[in-house]
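Cross-check.
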Amino acid sequence: MKTKESVALAAAFAAQVIFGFSFMFTKIALDVAQPLFLIAVRFLVAFLVMNILVWTGRLHLRLQGKNIKWLILLGILQPVVYFLGETYGIANSSSSFSGVMIALIPILTLFLGMIFLKERASKAQIGFAFLSVGGVILTSVGNNTGSFSWFGFIMLMLAVLTGSLYGLVGRKISQEFTPTERCYVTFALGCVVFTVLALITSLDNPRAEILVPLTTPGFWVSIGFLSVCSSVMAYMLLNYALTYISAGQTSIMANITTVISILAGVIFLKEPFTLRQALASIIILVGVYGVNRCVAAQQEADAKKSEAVAGEN
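Predicted model, tokenized:
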């Protein structure tokens, strides 16, 4: 596998490891904050960090003369619509149903990439992708039942669709916009939209929903990780990965998040670790490895074929 593609795979893996730990910090922050307020502060701080890095010359923006409509579309897909769909979908559905729905994102991304970006996927790659998703589903089933909600279902479907389209659009514009430019504009949109929504929803009880979280040290510890690591670092890595590997490859890495979130809960929050979780984690890892090994094998075969054709000429 080419060096840039290997680095991109490592970047995608690192991003999902960070996302895996974000569930733990989100859970801690939600003890004192409402979901919308947490998301608003997360992207506000992340956008401030991005600006500091730009102002100090650590990162560079060259947006002048470029068609930023694609970047605005990317930001609308994620974080804006995706986070709203996921947040309200999970809030109005059982955790097991939510887990199964969100696990569909890599599969949908894989097939949409084949249709719209003409990305190739072998039968073995598709099979390993379904295997990995099956591992995620295995961790979700049986957690709790809950009642079915059409609103929750629609919001989760919205999250699945926008999560998949984010990978496709990010891949499509990866040659025109750098990871820094993609992150900067999407964070700006997330900051503005979620700050406005959080302020509107907290008007009835601003003390409990704004002042209490802001004066709680644990909240700021969580915000530090969610903003700097899970937003700036992870999304920069993810956007870098989308520059060099397919949307399907990048998306299937998201299932690593499930494994990391389980381990983080067990190690740091002293949550139980069951045989089913262990089996599911193994299935996920085998599926992710299989998908990327299939891609590597196809690339090696293509390279040998090209060499053979060149030799004949």
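The chain has a mean pLDDT of 88. The two ends are 25 Å apart (CA to CA). Passed to J.P. for a second look.
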